[in-house]
Amino acid sequence: MTYEEYERQVNETKHEFDKIEQKYWKRLRQLAYDYAMSNNTVNIGDHITDHVGTIEVDKINAGLNQWSGTNNPICWYEGWVLTKQGHRRKDKKRYIIFQDDII
Fold first, then answer.
1. Does the structure show a pLDDT above 80 at 66?
2. 61: helix, coil or strand?
3. More confident residue, 20 or 68
4. How confident is the model over 3-27, as a mean pLDDT?
5. How far is Cα of residue 8 from the mean position of the Cα atoms in its chain?
6. Cα dihedral angle (40, 46, 48, 53), rounded to 10 degrees?
7. Which residues pair with 48 in a beta bridge?
8. pTM for this structure?
9. Whole-angstrom Cα distance, residue 66 to residue 63?
10. String of b and e for 24-62 (b: at least 16 CB within 10 Å)?
11. Is the pLDDT of residue 68 over 70?
């Protein structure tokens, strides 16, 4: 085997590994999404509260919780910040609440 053949085979192996790794991460994200959504109790239009404030949910996302360091699958909710009276704020501020933080 020449050095050129060696380099070619190493590159082919790296390429095959990259394909496998991409497939792994895609499948892992899908499993996390499916698990988190199956344990979701919040619907679009619901009002939810955390330690900062309350939002009206208009978008639900799910995946691995990279922010807590646990990598557990969770949902996070996006929506309009509400006043204490339950109305949207005039400045139309948006906020995200994580499933783990709901009070």
1. no
2. strand
3. 20
4. 95
5. 38
6. 140
7. 55
8. 0.78
9. 9
10. eeeeeeeebbebbeeeeebeeeeebebeeebbbbeebeb
11. no
* For the chain, counts of helices (H) and of strands (E): 1, 4
pLDDT digits (tens, 9 = 90+) for 23-42: 999 999 999 999 999 999 99
Helices (H), 2-97: 3-38
**Residues near 66 by beta carbon (within 8 Å), at least 6 away in sequence:** none
- Residue range 42-70: mean pLDDT, rounded: 90
Residues with Cβ < 8 Å from 64, sequence gap 6 or more? 28, 29, 32, 71, 72, 73
Q: What distance in Å separates the CA atoms of residue 58 and residue 15, rounded to the nearest whole number?
A: 41
- Radius of gyration of the chain from Cα atoms? 21
